[in-house]
């Protein structure tokens, strides 16, 4: 599965199914790791390593990949593809001109919502269902650059 999730490159990661009862908020057993919902790569084409823009959005929002709702990931991905098509570098300033942050503290989500009168894209799906149970764990492999730590 790591080959399906990763872009070609020298990196090495382990992608493994989660144990029974494990959730995306499970504390790691002293090993660096993060979780990804399967829908991010299977439906939205998000690959590892995250692009510079994807990392910048996660850092600006101060969230882990699974704390950003899949519809919000779709906005990030669509914006990045639009910029690529326009031959422009995606920037946080322009992106956040179109989107604002909505945190659902009760469930731990961070969502992006279109600002009034600035709708750029339709939501990917009106309602995501059953994605919460379909996730996997990403841990460093034995060789190659570390995908879990941004050294830039």
From TrEMBL:
| Signal sequence bounds | none
A Pfam family in this protein? Answer: Transposase_28
- Residue ranges of the Transposase (putative) gypsy type domain? 44-102
Q: This chain belongs to which protein, by name?
A: Transposase (putative) gypsy type domain-containing protein
């Amino acid at each position: 599965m790591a080959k399906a999730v990763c872009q070609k490159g020298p990196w090495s990661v382990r992608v493994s199914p989660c144990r029974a009862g494990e959730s995306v908020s499970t504390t790691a057993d002293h090993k660096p790791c993060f979780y990804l919902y399967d829908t991010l790569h299977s439906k939205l084409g998000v690959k590892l390593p995250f692009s510079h823009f994807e990392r910048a959005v996660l850092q600006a929002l101060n969230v882990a990949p699974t704390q950003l709702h899949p519809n919000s990931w779709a906005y990030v991905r669509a914006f990045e593809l639009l910029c690529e098509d326009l031959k422009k570098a995606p920037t946080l300033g322009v992106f956040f001109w179109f989107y604002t942050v909505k945190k659902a503290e009760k469930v731990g989500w961070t969502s992006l919502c279109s600002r009034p009168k600035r709708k750029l894209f339709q939501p990917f799906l009106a309602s995501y269902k059953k994605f919460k149970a379909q996730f996997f764990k990403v841990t460093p492999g034995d060789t190659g650059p570390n995908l879990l730590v941004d050294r830039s």
